[in-house]
Amino acid sequence: METTVNYLLQSALALLVLFLFYRLVLYNQPGLLYNRLYLLLAPVMAMIIPLLELPLPFQQVLPTTNVIPAIQLQEIQVTAFGSTAAAEAPLLTIHQMLLLLYGPVGLVLLIRLGIQVARIRTLASVAKPFPSPAAEATVLQTEGQFPSFAFLHYVFLGDMKHLSAQEQQQILSHEMAHVRLRHTYDVLYYEVLTAVLWFNPLVWLMKEELRNVHEFQADAEVLANCQPQEYSSLLAKEALYMAGIPVGSYFQKPQ
């Protein structure tokens, strides 16, 4: 058990170094694809690094000659005077209690993930098809029950009655980019990873960083076919609408 704890501590330290490198060096770089690959590979690298036995530079081998031989003495047990009762061992050690805590939390997170996937499958069975020329995804209308999102090869569109036809197409293009770039597999990968390493806050932070990269990639796909000013106005409009302020004055020309 002690070996497992040491391994987890070493892998957490390696992940901390990799996360700091991302925040200080890669975070503001324009290479979204490389940032995505780095965030996907960093946890795997952090788990492999403690297993590597790297030779240390300037390592010297101590001579084995003239070594004083060790002498094994017989073990002597010291007890209190007049006491014959042996000390009672605790029912559970600290390592066993940590293991009992680790297992249920990870299991709950995996069950929650399974429930979410099952809800999406149920939603796909009851949602109405939405006419779209895109062949790489199945577009469905949720009648405003949920916001627009993408999952695997499905695109679910929420309530878009307050948007123009051009704005609706931009939202559809955004979600289609998620499908085309296969972002769902990254999300499922990190959901399982956080269920296994739930005690490490760095894994949760890196999951959020990866989701941000996904959004930036999808935005870049939309901006290839529309004006940045129009798209930024749509983002502000949707943010206010989702906040429950549909009657607000939206940013038509943000400075």
Kindly describe this structure:
The chain has seven helices and four strands. By secondary structure, it is mainly alpha-helical. Strands 1-2-4-3 form a four-stranded mixed sheet, sandwiched between helices. Strand 1 and strand 2 form a beta hairpin. Helix 3 (94-126) packs antiparallel against helix 5 and helix 5 packs antiparallel against helix 6 (201-223). The longest helix is centred in the middle third of the chain and has 33 residues, at 94-126. Residues 246-255 have low confidence and may be disordered.
Sum this structure up briefly:
The chain is mainly α. It has helices at residues 2-26, 32-48, 94-126, 165-180, 183-196, 201-223, 228-242, and strands at 128-129, 138-141, 149-151, 154-157. A four-stranded mixed beta sheet has the order 1-2-4-3, with helices on both faces.
- Cα distance, first to last residue? 58 Å
Number of helices: 7
**Average pLDDT:** 80
Radius of gyration: 28 Å
Strand coverage percent? 5-15%
Series of H and E elements: HHHEEEEHHHH
**Classification by helices and strands:** mainly alpha
What strand line-up does the widest sheet have? 1-2-4-3
| Low-confidence sequence ranges | 246-255
Fraction of residues in H or I helices: 55-70%
Main sheet makeup: 4 strands, mixed
Give the total of beta strands: 4
* CA-based shape: elongated
